[in-house]
Amino acid sequence: MIIVLDFGGQYSHLIARRIRDLKVFCEMLPFSTPLEDIIAKGAKGIVFSGGPSSVYSEGAPSCDPGIYKLGIPILGICYGMQLMGRQLGGVVSPAAHREYGKTELTVLERDKLFINLEPTEQCWMSHGDMVESPPPGFTVTATTSKAPVAAMARAEQSLYAVQFHPEVVHTPKGQDILQRFLFDICGCHGLWTMTSFLEQAVDEIRRQVGDKKVLCGLSGGVDSSVAAVLVHQAVGDRLTCVFVDHGLLRKGEAEQVLKVFRDKFKINLIGVEAHERFLSKLSGVTDPERKRKIIGEEFIRVFEEEADKLGQIDFLVQGTLYPDVVESGTATAAVIKSHHNVGGLPEDMRLKLIEPLCWLFKDEVRALGEEMGLPDEVVWRQPFPGPGLGVRITGEVNAEKVAILQEADAIFEEEIRKAGLYRKIWQSFAVLPDMRSVGVMGDERTYAYTVALRAVNSQDAMTADWVRLPYEVLESVSSRIVSEIRAVNRVVYDITSKPPATIEWE
Ligand code: XMP
């Protein structure tokens, strides 16, 4: 395995991603990780990520210089190179001209890292500081017009560093450079697959759980579903899942989830039908934050009640993914955040967490889901918010509005699927704004709801762009919605990106 030490760079995730694409298992750890922990991981190589700081600024992130004596190959990238340069006695200084974007790289030495590079290559730069002269024993292996040391190496100790970013697509040979580091310098073999992950994860969960009992809050989304099936493979009937149907799910979703998990996977599954309970709490409430709080709190109540009925439970399964862990910063923060995922379970439950997916990205979880035989409807389901349609109905939420929105949403999804677009879109869904307007139907005046359609593409939901849906698709969705749902006489399409809007409407 490889460790990526994170110095806060905007591309740190991407480094981990690229390494995994080469079928080498990799973990990203904070720059401050103690050496003992790094040694205990048995890493074959370490990558220092980039970062926004200057190595000279106060409190700049740094690692224990003992790391260079471990005998583990290191590749420093951008800030990682400057840190290596400074810690080993080179000179780092602010660059007279910042280098940003596509840059021509002159390769001076085709060493193990650069063996497949041409004399000049394109690379992607993004830096203010630079290594002016390398530390003793280092060779300058590449240069650019503005950076005299664009790459350096001390091959005898397997220390390599590049000022540019091999992990981004704008460095066309970047993946080859990473591959040379992993395979030729660190001796990795690229054998990490979902099957090996699955076997390891099942063993690990068995060891962790022993003969104890495990609980899982199942939402039917891909993350919690894959986590549940994985844990079920490990501990069988000692796992019980709780699925809370708060009445704000999509049309037919609850029935589908219960059927798949009971029929196909024979998982112990408690389905709690709680429509009334949630809707009565939401009655008359229009403030979006209050709605969220009510749904969140009620969810915890139902979950706790069901957990109590099961007696002593020792473990709780969470479908936490790798980006969630990284975004939370530290392992401790990840645990706190995970508890929030199911709504902050009480301290006295003393549940220990099982998070079998916490090293995976979303697409890896989907690959694992396919490997375990989860049906496409689960594996490829678009993300759906915990509070469900509660964050897609503005104003008061009531049974009538939920029913209208479920119908409109089902029509939109059906047409999107028919057009072969469902898997290509991050999220596509209908929204019911709190407004009615006048229309005319069969010579009759109508005064009915407007449905808004939203379709966005995104990498991580932090930013999103609206999808340029074909007019024909919009047309068929619109005409079906107004003709099949009496309470709707107008359909609009949201053409706002995030920011300034958000993905959901609330
Ligand atoms: P916004 O609307 O903030 O949404 O742009 C970003 C992404 O998060 C999803 N979302 C949620 N997911 N619980 C969830 O599990 C929530 O409370 C929640 N609110 C928003 C949303 O669907 C989008 O993918």
UniProtKB/TrEMBL annotation:
<dbReference type="Pfam" id="PF00958">
    <property type="entry name" value="GMP_synt_C"/>
</dbReference>
<comment type="subunit">
    <text>Homodimer.</text>
</comment>
<feature type="active site" description="Nucleophile">
    <location>
        <position position="78"/>
    </location>
</feature>
<dbReference type="InterPro" id="IPR017926">
    <property type="entry name" value="GATASE"/>
</dbReference>
<dbReference type="GO" id="GO:0005524">
    <property type="term" value="F:ATP binding"/>
</dbReference>
<dbReference type="InterPro" id="IPR025777">
    <property type="entry name" value="GMPS_ATP_PPase_dom"/>
</dbReference>
<dbReference type="InterPro" id="IPR029062">
    <property type="entry name" value="Class_I_gatase-like"/>
</dbReference>
<dbReference type="InterPro" id="IPR004739">
    <property type="entry name" value="GMP_synth_GATase"/>
</dbReference>
<protein>
    <recommendedName>
        <fullName>GMP synthase [glutamine-hydrolyzing]</fullName>
        <ecNumber>6.3.5.2</ecNumber>
    </recommendedName>
</protein>
<comment type="function">
    <text>Catalyzes the synthesis of GMP from XMP.</text>
</comment>
<feature type="active site">
    <location>
        <position position="167"/>
    </location>
</feature>
<dbReference type="GO" id="GO:0005829">
    <property type="term" value="C:cytosol"/>
</dbReference>
<feature type="domain" description="GMPS ATP-PPase">
    <location>
        <begin position="192"/>
        <end position="381"/>
    </location>
</feature>
<dbReference type="InterPro" id="IPR022955">
    <property type="entry name" value="GMP_synthase"/>
</dbReference>
<dbReference type="InterPro" id="IPR014729">
    <property type="entry name" value="Rossmann-like_a/b/a_fold"/>
</dbReference>
<dbReference type="Pfam" id="PF02540">
    <property type="entry name" value="NAD_synthase"/>
</dbReference>
<dbReference type="InterPro" id="IPR001674">
    <property type="entry name" value="GMP_synth_C"/>
</dbReference>
<dbReference type="Pfam" id="PF00117">
    <property type="entry name" value="GATase"/>
</dbReference>
<keyword id="KW-0547">Nucleotide-binding</keyword>
<keyword id="KW-0315">Glutamine amidotransferase</keyword>
<keyword id="KW-0658">Purine biosynthesis</keyword>
<feature type="binding site">
    <location>
        <begin position="219"/>
        <end position="225"/>
    </location>
    <ligand>
        <name>ATP</name>
    </ligand>
</feature>
<keyword id="KW-0067">ATP-binding</keyword>
<dbReference type="InterPro" id="IPR022310">
    <property type="entry name" value="NAD/GMP_synthase"/>
</dbReference>
<feature type="active site">
    <location>
        <position position="165"/>
    </location>
</feature>
<dbReference type="GO" id="GO:0003921">
    <property type="term" value="F:GMP synthase activity"/>
</dbReference>
<keyword id="KW-0436">Ligase</keyword>
<comment type="pathway">
    <text>Purine metabolism; GMP biosynthesis; GMP from XMP (L-Gln route): step 1/1.</text>
</comment>
<keyword id="KW-0332">GMP biosynthesis</keyword>
